[in-house]
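Q: I'm writing up a methods section and want to include an example of the input and output format. Could you take the sequence below and give the corresponding predicted structure tokens, formatted cleanly so I can copy it straight into the document?
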Amino acid sequence: MPELKPGEFTAIFAKLSEEGRIRGRIALEPLAAAVEKQAKINASSGRHAYGTRTPARPGSGPAIISGTLRRSITHSPIVQVGTGWETKVGTGVGFTPPYGRRPTPANKYGLYLETGLRNGAVYPFLAPAFHFAVKIAAATIYTEAYGAGWTRVA
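A: Here is the clean output for your methods example:
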């Protein structure tokens, strides 16, 4: 095996690091899309009219009243933060349901459902979507972005 010249080892690892950074950006978009898609599925546990009892059970995702919450679920553009990448998946601002005297915007309503209503009931849809994406979808996405051998997420 030939001996490395001064600086070659550093150059090889710098190139490897940059390749990993680029592939990380490539993998993040489908991962965010998978969380978003699953959150929309989770936010659809039945359907009911405004003012009527929900068919959703506490601990499961919420039921659809108008569909505003489900339509508000999105992810932000991917941006570089330090040496890595970031995107946020959640409820977007500016979505308000078409009912009620003082309707709660979807972003606040989604937070209340996820963390607990006044009566203590929770109807999580984002956290289970994240866990699904990390445990199920990430293996396929990482294999496509990095190649075989990168199927485990720490």
